[in-house]
Design brief:
The structure holds 3 protein chains of 3 kinds. By secondary structure, chain A is an alpha/beta fold. Chain A has 4 helices and 4 strands, in the order βαβαβαβα. Chain A has a 4-stranded parallel sheet with strand order 2-1-3-4, sandwiched between helices. Chain A is globular, with a radius of gyration of 15 Å. The longest helix of chain C has 19 residues. The chains are: A alpha/beta, B alpha/beta, C alpha+beta.
């Protein structure tokens, strides 16, 4: 897949309301840079993210999808992220099995205090997806017009 | 087979059961259909042989709503599905009288390798096929459904009584095919599934036959969901449907193989479910859905030290 | 009558495909369906029945009708164009060709379905006689002769030779285009092949199904039969029978939101599905029994009532082969034959 020099991937980041979204806020207020192509979707808890959300994001044009939540043990709802962890582990394994490039999905635990981690995570994820090029294998042709 | 009919007649006559759920003789020897029998007379059409592959557990969801008990014949692997449905409160154990029937492997008519089949005689280990274009013989084992080669075991997980002896049929490794795909490069994997899923016609047979797909309204039938539901519009839709369907039954799928048996396009759908089963076994400990009524399901429980998503990527 | 060696067929395909799209049975992942010819396609004309019928080519399972895009404060509407380039369908069996006549009754009656009409006009049908009919075939019941199918060109595969007989103007035009690959042939071989096929057809278990209980009058007579209540029970409510059927013509029209536009498309619907004919007030068939009855009554009673007695089943037997529960139209016909109403 030829990628032009200035091609920018579209990244969807699902961030939990309590930790990661606050982490993104902190990154912003600390003036830490991360690419503007990261579209953040706030969810009440990482556990809210249905596997279908991830696929839908790819369908509608995302080139990479990342899920951020509270660190295991720190979930605002005590255990939500533990369930999310199992679900995403299985889903990512299935996507690998279907031959979707494994760099397009990631889970990262980011606390409200980790503005730096948030920005670094996004920067490295965007770079990885950029290297992979546009998402073809999980895209929907109808949305590419 | 006669003992099944005799027992069914007894139970009907004594009033213990109001009806019988079993298999009825088809047009030919190889196409029995699922049927409810309401009286002794109708039981003359009852059959139970190698072609009775259909898993009757799913029909018990509807039968649980009927007046009185239903006598149902469950093969060992069907009994796993029944336990799973009990666990999910989708069937009523009190409404079922379960006779666990023995199983010695079920047959796939597509594997007989003959055109214009008129009749198949099951003669022990050999199938005598007579067709419009000549007769042939096939070893019973060679015509078995894939699922029977990797059978979970011939022990009934729920029953009131059992009839007929089972025979062991395992001669393949359950996860060999999954491992073969796992070993491919991402490009090969993608090409393989793309080619298989491109055949999908979205007929929903896999979903509707699946005992784990027991939702009253499927998410794919929701009008609010922007899903194609019945149209094979783009390759994305087919992937979406099959990934999500497999995910929705992950940890609940007993690997009964009905999805692959009924697919009109011969898509090996069990490979999706089995991938999840393999991952669950590896990551969260051996788990067999439907084996135990009390055991916690892998996706509704957790350990604090579970593997991280994508931890095993290269 | 012309002929071409079977071994030379790839040349024939390439020659047709050089001028127009060519659809023919192609094997993908071990299953044969109609597909577009390419140099690498695994063409399979030996399989008797493709899983899906050739209906897909004229009436696709899903097709976009138009797209609506929002541009600033305006909407732009992009209407899907009619097919204007000719194409050839090779290897359709007799039942599937007749199925086109059934579809014509629906789509070419007023109001004419212009998308379908354009494809019918642009398409040239090259049919193929059935060498080895299957147990589930019962086209004879509907007066179809699978030894001599309809079509613009009719072909017979006899041993290693394909015989080629143009029947219509379109067929003659196609024959002219590929004339350099064909040679003149004698009809004797084809005649004996036809007789052999007809002899097999006579032996088919469903060849003599009686349709006496069906037709226009059955619409009233069979509707309230108790048999439906018994027969529907094993039905899983999947759409396999309708999607493999060459004559099922019901469709749904839906919108797809791409995020930046809306695409209106139509797709096959199935009377087996719970949302079939769903309207604002709800659904007028509320049980699976009613949906099950609808399928068979439509094919065997309502359609003939509206189309001078023509049944909308062609006896291809695909539903017989593919039903997960081994339910099918043959069992329905026989049940009524045996038990009356």
């Amino acid at each position: 897949m030829p990628v032009t020099e200035n091609w920018k991937p579209t990244i969807v980041a699902f961030c939990c309301n309590w930790c990661s979204y606050a982490g993104a806020d902190l990154a912003g207020s600390s003036r830490l840079a991360y690419p503007a192509d990261v579209k953040i979707i706030k969810v009440p808890c990482s556990c809210r993210v249905n596997p279908m959300f991830i696929l839908r994001a790819f369908e509608k044009g995302a080139d990479g999808v990342i899920l951020c939540g509270c660190h295991p043990g720190d979930c605002h709802y005590s255990t939500g992220n533990y369930y999310a962890r199992r679900r995403m582990t299985l889903l990512f394994s299935m996507l690998d099995y279907l031959g979707v490039e494994d760099g397009r999905t990631r889970v990262e635990w980011v606390s409200a205090a980790e503005g730096v981690k948030f920005s670094e995570t996004m920067n490295s994820f965007v770079e990885k997806v950029r290297a992979l090029g546009p998402n073809v294998r999980l895209g929907d042709l109808r949305c590419k017009n | 087979m006669q003992e099944l009919i005799v027992r069914a007649k007894e139970l009907l006559a004594s009033g213990q059961v109001a009806r019988v759920l079993g298999w009825k003789k088809g047009e030919h020897s190889y196409d029995p259909e699922v049927a409810f029998f309401n009286d002794a007379e109708s039981l003359q059409d009852f059959v139970y042989d190698g072609f009775c592959g259909a898993n009757l557990s799913k029909y018990m969801i509807e039968a649980s709503k009927l007046e009185g008990k239903t006598l149902v014949f469950l093969k060992p692997c069907d009994s796993y599905s029944f336990v799973q449905l009990m666990k999910e409160h989708r069937v009523d154990r009190e409404k079922a009288y379960i006779i666990g029937v023995g199983c010695w492997g079920k047959l796939d008519v597509r594997k007989l390798g003959a055109e214009g089949i008129l009749d198949v005689e099951i003669a022990g280990d050999v199938l005598k096929v007579s067709s419009l274009y000549g007769d042939s013989e096939v070893a019973y084992k060679d015509a078995m459904l894939e699922r029977c080669h990797v059978c979970k075991g011939k022990e009934h997980k729920v029953f009131d009584e059992t009839l007929l002896e089972s025979a062991d049929t395992v001669d393949l490794d359950r996860f060999a095919e999954v491992e073969r795909i796992e070993a491919m490069s991402p490009e090969e994997k993608f090409a393989y599934f793309q080619s298989e899923l491109s055949k999908c016609i979205r007929c929903n047979a896999c979903r509707n036959v699946c005992p784990a797909c027991s939702c009253r309204k499927c998410v794919f039938d929701s009008t609010a969901f922007n899903s194609e539901q019945k149209a094979n519009t783009t390759s994305f839709e087919e992937k979406m449907f099959h990934i999500i369907r497999a995910f929705h039954v992950a940890g609940r799928c007993t690997d009964c193989g009905e999805c692959s048996r009924v697919c009109p396009q011969g898509i090996p759908l069990h490979l999706f479910n089995r991938k999840f089963i393999k991952d669950i076994n590896r990551l969260y400990g051996e788990y067999q859905a439907g084996a135990d009524l009390e055991e916690k399901a892998p996706l509704t429980s957790f350990q604090t030290d579970d593997a991280e998503p994508g931890a095993d990527r290269r | 009558m012309y002929k071409i060696q079977k071994a030379d067929l790839p040349k024939l395909y390439a020659s047709i495909a050089a001028e127009s799209d060519l659809f023919l049975p192609v094997k993908v992942a071990d299953q044969t369906n109609f597909g577009l010819y390419t140099e690498t396609a695994d063409v399979d004309i030996d399989t008797l029945k493709t899983v899906k019928s050739a209906k897909d080519i004229f009436f696709p399972q899903s097709e976009t009708l138009y797209k609506v895009r929002r541009e600033n404060d305006n909407f732009s509407i992009d209407v899907e164009q009619h097919r204007t380039s000719p194409f050839v369908v090779f290897g359709i069996r007799g039942c599937d060709v007749r199925a086109m006549t059934v579809l014509d009754k629906v789509f070419l009656s007023e109001p004419i379905d212009s998308y379908y009409a354009a494809r019918r006009q642009m398409g040239t049908i090259v049919s193929l006689a059935c060498g080895r009919p299957d147990t589930s075939c019962f086209c004879k019941v509907f007066g179809i002769d699978c030894a001599e199918p309809e079509g613009d060109v009719v072909t017979w595969l006899v041993g290693k030779v394909l015989y080629w007989q143009p029947k219509t103007k379109k067929g003659e035009a196609l024959t002219e285009k590929v004339a350099s690959l064909l040679e003149k042939a004698d009809e004797a071989m084809v005649e004996s092949a036809k007789n052999a096929i007809r002899a097999i057809v006579k032996k088919l278990p469903y060849a003599n199904l009686s349709l006496e209980k069906w037709g226009a009058a059955a619409a009233d007579a069979n509707f309230d039969s108790k048999l439906w209540e018994e027969m529907y029970k094993p039905c899983l409510a999947c759409g396999t029978c309708t999607f493999v059927c060459p004559t099922c013509q019901c469709y749904d029209i839906k919108d797809y939101d791409t995020g930046s536009s809306v695409q209106r498309y139509r797709c096959w619907d199935s009377c087996m599905y719970s949302d079939f004919t769903m309207m604002a007030h709800g659904n007028n068939r509320t049980s699976q029994m009613q949906r099950f009855r609808q399928r068979f009554m439509h094919k065997l009673a309502y359609f003939p009532a509206n189309n001078q007695g023509m049944f909308s089943c062609v006896g291809c037997g695909r539903c017989v082969d593919k039903c997960p529960s081994h339910l099918n139209i043959v069992k329905v016909i026989k049940a009524f034959e045996k038990e009356g109403v």
